[in-house]
Amino acid sequence: MSAQARPVKSVGFIHLVPFDKNDPQRGHEEGLELFEYAESLGLDSGWVRTRHLQHGLSSPAVFFGAVSQRTTKIGLGNAVIPVGFENPFRLAEDLATADVLSGGRLLPGLSVHAPGYTEEVNDLVHDTGWREEDYGYGRIERLRSLLSGEQVRSVPEYNGIGGDFDSERVEPHSEGLSERLWYGGGSLRSAEWAGQSGLNWLVSNITSYEEGEENFSIAQRKQIDTFRAAHREGDSARVSVARVIVPTEGATLDQQERYARYVEGRTARTKGVHGGRTLIAPDVTGSNAEIIEFIRNDVAFQAADDYLFELPFEFELADWKQILEQLAREIAPALGWSRND
After folding, report:
1. What contacts 62, CB < 8 A, 6 or more positions away?
2. Residue 149 maps to which CATH number?
3. pLDDT, tens digit, 9 for 90 and up, residues 162-172
4. d(Cα 171, Cα 153) in Å, to the nearest integer?
5. Which residue segment(s) compose the domain that 200 sits in?
6. Counted domains in the chain
7. What pTM was estimated for this model as a whole?
8. 307 burial type by CB count under 10 A (0-12 exposed, 13-18 middle, 19+ buried)
9. What are 215-255's pLDDT values in tens digits?
């Protein structure tokens, strides 16, 4: 593994868009404001998590439809949409609509896994057909083919009834969207599949490891190398690495104290292995110089094209803005990034 980092192509953030269950509008409005602020700082992209049955963003395509009307440049990413909850046909329509509204700025990040609730809840969330559904990679292949404009049906000749708006493919069609798909993974198996499928590769602060390798960054770097080895574009295949990183510079004394308590309270979970082979990366907090040093020496970041800061769920709008300001004005430029205006 080389200690020479690749040039940074883009810098952005990942946000849950959390909200108070008694005042959901405020949290969503703050999410919109944060995207506007990030664009004003020149950041390349903002990514949202998807959360179902939680107090976080459940409908990213709708949210991005709103963001698209308040921003003009910033990329709009998903980290990630769990496609098991979605009908690929309807998801294709929603993503394409948001992409058209944004002028082609969507970066859909996807994952697949089988329903994980109890059978009773799965029946309500997925309908009873979930027992027979295939929740494998083929679900993403179907989504991509629909986004690419693949023919769904043959349209009969117009006979004067019902108008002439019928189409053979998913509408609206947004050219290029099917080539902007990312797979959010955390295993060598998914890395190889994503590479073979020609997708982009997105990794974050949770990953799995192979027997004998429990170092988080090394395990993740092996996945990146596996992805590129399987990809038709080889070393040019696109990779994004995300971590929870909390700079203390520019923060008030109260913020610094809360940041320290936050990281301290979460550190214990990074010391062990979860669920057999799952590793969680330590949150990184400190001065800008300390954060820059960490990123430069992390072998996963060294192999990445795009750097993403994961914003802590428990913080507030002023905290997230402080983090993004340090990222855009101090940290990212020191790592070789420059804003593209």
Report:
1. 94, 98
2. 3.20.20.30
3. 667 889 999 99
4. 13
5. 10-153+171-334
6. 1
7. 0.95
8. buried
9. 999 999 999 999 999 999 999 999 999 999 999 999 999 99
